[in-house]
Amino acid sequence: xxxxxxxxxxxxxxxxxxxxxxxxxxxxxxxxxxxxxxxxxxxxxxxxxxxxxxxxxxxxxxxxxxxxxxxxxxxxxxxxxxxxxxxxxxxxxxxxxxxxxxxxxxxxxxxxxxxxxxxxxxxxxxxxxxxxxxxxxxxxxxxxxxxxxxxxxxxxxxxxxxxxxxxxxxxxxxxxxxxxxxxxxxxxxxxxxxxxxxxxxxxxxxxxxxxxxxxxxxxxxx
Length: 222
Prior knowledge:
This protein is an all-alpha fold. The protein has one domain (3-219). The chain has helices at residues 3-29, 31-34, 41-65, 69-101, 107-116, 119-134, 139-152, 155-165, 170-193, 198-219. Helix 1 (3-29) runs parallel beside helix 7 (139-152). The termini are far apart. The model has no long low-confidence stretch (mean pLDDT 89).
């Protein structure tokens, strides 16, 4: 990977980390000063695990930029374990939230709310990370799948950022931001390599589809 390409991926990782921090600053990272609501212990643990994942992703990208691929591969084992933890805790947190809000929920309502609460994005994240690990010996595919996997986790942060400015049509705002983010990745990849890599295109299409389903579940009557 040439230096400019390494810098691009490092910049993308830093941007994602910044979006995550900004989105959850008020009610997590800076909640001691800005927080307006109480969070459960499990939500706190989930937040810490997600933070660990974002920091690991940023570290892994930095290691590649510094050409320390040996350390990158060693940390990859911890990354696989952490990704499974992110998935498990994420599902547990979403299901717990649904049960608190809809204690008598039917199976159909549980599925609807799981999708509405960004459950599809979480499952897509797990699938993309798994695909990236399977292709860890093919760097051009691996790094793009990991980047798209990180992008798939952005809806909750985007939702909170949009809500900072307006509580109206938050769902539309998140959908637009997600589509714009994926489209930007595809366009940048195309400009740098004359055509976008299939991993970005197909991964981006899955992100589009996931967020479209989430939007439909959110605007539907539970």
